[in-house]
Amino acid sequence: MRKQQTKLKTGRKRFWLIILIYLLLGIAGILVGYQYFTFSNSYKPPAFEQNAVPGVPTPPENMAYSPVNAEGGFAFALAGNLYQQENGELCIYLTNPTDSGVWLMCEIESPHYGVVYKSGVIKQGEYVERLAPLMEFPNEASKIELRVYGFNPDDWQSKGTVYLNTTLQPW
User: Fold this and answer.
1) What is d(CA 45, CA 131) in angstroms, rounded to the nearest whole number?
2) Which of 70, 46, 67, 87 is nearest to 127 (CA)?
3) Which of 4-13, 44-53, 131-140, 143-152 is the least confident region?
């Protein structure tokens, strides 16, 4: 009788185990990458203003408080004369009327310092009297750009932005 040689197959099991491990690692990498790019690029709405007060303010006469009608169909009111306070805060009296149909947010930018004041989102029927500075800002008359953003309360879609150029007055 003739004897047949037998092959050892231990190398094949090891080979397929290594291939399986690499395949599972590749799938895990793809899933992690998909989650990173999907969730990191999703929109995160801004926070609501913590210092918002319900109602309509009664600022002093020298603040030149008046309404502004935006082309996007919404309205708001704020102080026309902006005064920086001793502690760096800004008196703004930004008011979102109850019938505006939008939520508001405000940013104030200096050409030399970037955004120096920023509010949170102000709901309809609320106002914010003062904004805290985001950085140390010199106590001097400064040209600024005030931006008021309008958001649709249902889906955060933009309803427009109003740009106002004015001068920030020192205290």
Assistant:
1) 19
2) 67
3) 4-13
Q: Using 50, 70 and 90 to split pLDDT, how confident is the model at 93?
A: very high
- What integer pLDDT is reported at residue 106 of this predicted model? 96
CA distance 166 to 80: 8
Q: Are 67 and 162 in contact (CB under 8 A)?
A: no
> Whats the size of the chain, residue-wise?
171
CB 92 within 8 Å of CB 130: yes
pLDDT exceeds 90 at position 109: yes
Q: Whole-angstrom Cα distance, residue 106 to residue 149?
A: 6
Which helix (H) or strand (E) segment holds residue 147: the answer is strand 142-151
Residue 66 vs residues 57, 96, 141: alpha-carbon distances, Å: 11, 12, 21
Q: Which residues pair with 108 in a beta bridge?
A: 117, 146
